[in-house]
Every structure is written in C-alpha cells, then in structure tokens.
C-alpha cells in the first residue's frame, strides 16, 4: 500500500541502499531533499556538479541535463528527479555564493540544539554583496533546471510516481 507521506525519508540507510534496485523506497520530497544521499545517482551526477565560473557552470549544467535526458530515455524517473535536483542545487548554491562570498549566509555556527532543522535558527543573516560571476553561473543552472522541471515526460512520470508511491 502506498504511503500518503510525500516527504523525503531521511531515516533510510542510504550508504547501503541502491534505489535503482529498490525504487519503491524513493520519495520526491520538496526542492533538493536527498540530493546528496540517493545512490547510485549521487555518485553518477555529483562528479559533474560545478559552478565556479559561468564556463564551468555551462559545461556542468549541460552534462547534468544530458544525464537527465539519458535517464529519461531509460524511463528512470528517480534518475530524472535526481538530475533535476542537482540542477536546482547548482542554481541555489551559485546564488548563495553570488550573495555571500564565503558561502555563509548566516552569522555564527548553528547551535547544537538547532542542527538539522531548516531556517536561520535565529542567527543574523550576513550582508549581501553581488558577485556577477556567480550570479551568471546561477542563471545558467536555473535555465537548465527549468528545462528539466518543465519537461512533459518528467511531469507525467512525477505525477504517476507520487500517485503510486506517495
């Protein structure tokens, strides 16, 4: 019986789990949930994920989008979704570095009792300074992310997946 919980399950043993072999365990979740956990996809996509300069971001986003298309050709929804998540993460991380040179968005470390929870945890957001190189990298990734997200076959498979598995 499919689960009605659509959130990503962080309780699974992802280090020892191959979701290509057990796809029924995969949950789409929201945004980038699980992007650095789900194997074997993480290992297949992560080596290509880079955004330091627009040239690197273009090459990276095109390679990851090609992986998206390769997964699509194989009917591998999880692979498509993971490639989409990496494209989204390319956008969000490049955007963070465009806004904050160090990549740190908030002042100070995360308090121990707040680790693993979303948001700023009451910490002050650091001032922004626009880095046009990282901003361009973010724009490049965002364009490829939209191509993946709006792909008609991806949308169809995502809806079917969520109806079947939650």
From TrEMBL:
Q: Which domain of life is it from?
A: Bacteria
Return the InterPro entries for the record: DUF4385
The protein here is known as DUF4385 family protein
**Disordered as annotated region, ranges:** 100-132
